[in-house]
Amino acid sequence: MKKIKNLQLRYKKNERGEIIFNKNIYLKKNIARIFKPIIRDRKCFFFIDKNLYQKMDLRLYCKRLKKELNADIFLLKGGEQAKSLHYFYNYINKVFRSGVNVNSYIVAIGGGTIIDLAGMISSMIYRGINFISIPTTLLASADAAISCKNALNLSGAKNLIGTYALPKKIFIETEYVYNFLDTRYFWDGFAEIIKHAIGHSRKLYNHLVNNNSTYIKKKYINKLNKKEKEEFLKDISEILLMTIQSKTELFNEKNNELQPLYHFGHTIGHALEIASKHKCFHGEAISIGMLVATELSISRNRLNKRILKDLLFLIEKFNLPKVISKKIFNQKLFKSAIKKDKRYFDGNNHFILIDKKFKISSKLTPIKYDEFYNILKKYIN
């Protein structure tokens, strides 16, 4: 596979985070070659997704981590419960009991929730210790890991407590980790990719629209033949690179996480996750959130109606839902969650809207509950 050049996130005046592609970080022989020069003899802690540990059979890998790096290893279940105060208190206490110091490293190997938890812990200890992020899902690789944001959930709402701290290194692997990802979780990651395609990157948009790869037609990734798998790995590497380039470019424009595109579709999306008690996954919820935000953009910003059709086409093509089942939707929980959104103030939710294709509005638009809920109802079935 063609070698991908590393990228760099720049935060504030002197913080840098290197994005490194396809170093085969999961091979035991690479622990000494890759981790040792970075961590050296410093105390280190690995937060590893328990499901991935079992599916990839990482027992010998973890033994090598302990032998080569004298690492403390925490196996934990991913999911939104990992972003709770209970998990935070439990694991930050374990880190302190194990002898953390200001030069220590925390390494997260997992999806977005484990990266959030480990990143939050690393940013709070001594006001910030070294952090390395290794995402293992498409969603985390395309979005959560390419960030300086860390957050916990609280009181029936998402990301109410958080910090800003940039990882030292972010390792993106496209070679084989997706063999261990359930099909629904894989497609879930495409919502954030589509967000960047519609809202910023013409190159990514054109690639998605014209993509005729076999795995897209077959709608699964785990039963591909050798030729199809090679095609898949090549394509997903290209898609991830374009998405990460888009996010990195936007991030580095302002040296921060405040780019409006990052939040497009998330006001509704986060509340739908809570309203469904997370039966609607993050990407699935964001897909519906983007549809609502696009309809609001048509009425408020005179957005071309064609863009809604373009968005629907991509959502359907990449196996994301256009509706949420009324069986899992709780309006009371939705209304409570939407009022806890960080862009709820002065009695209104303030939305990120789109001005035109590849251009997200830089301003917040206040919208009354009844206006956006009447649109959302079309997507509840």
Which short descriptors sum up this protein?
381 residues, alpha/beta, Rossmann fold, Dehydroquinate synthase-like, alpha domain, 2 domains, 7-stranded mixed β-sheet, 3-stranded antiparallel β-sheet, 16 helices, 19% strand
In CATH's first tier, which class of the largest domain applies?
Mainly Alpha
Q: Which consecutive residue ranges, at least 5 long each, have pLDDT under 50?
A: none
- Side by side, the strands of the main sheet go 1-2-9-6-5-3-4
Q: Please give the domain count.
A: 2
**If you average the pLDDT, what whole number results?**
94
Secondary structure category: alpha/beta
- What would the CATH topology of the largest domain be? Dehydroquinate synthase-like, alpha domain
Topology record:
Elements: E1 7-11, E2 15-21, H1 29-39, E3 44-49, H2 50-55, H3 59-69, E4 72-76, H4 85-97, E5 105-110, H5 112-124, E6 130-135, H6 138-144, E7 149-154, E8 157-164, E9 169-172, H7 183-188, H8 190-199, H9 202-209, H10 214-218, H11 226-254, H12 266-275, H13 282-301, H14 306-317, H15 331-338, E10 344-345, E11 348-356, E12 359-367, H16 369-376
Parallel strand pairs: 2-9, 3-4, 3-5, 5-6, 6-9
Antiparallel strand pairs: 1-2, 7-8, 10-11, 11-12
Walk me through the structure:
The chain has 381 residues and is an alpha/beta fold. It folds into two domains: 7-181, Rossmann fold, CATH 3.40.50; 187-379, Dehydroquinate synthase-like - alpha domain (Dehydroquinate synthase-like, alpha domain, Up-down Bundle), CATH 1.20.1090. 46% of the residues lie in helices and 19% in strands. α6 (138-144) packs parallel to α11. The model has no long low-confidence stretch (mean pLDDT 94).
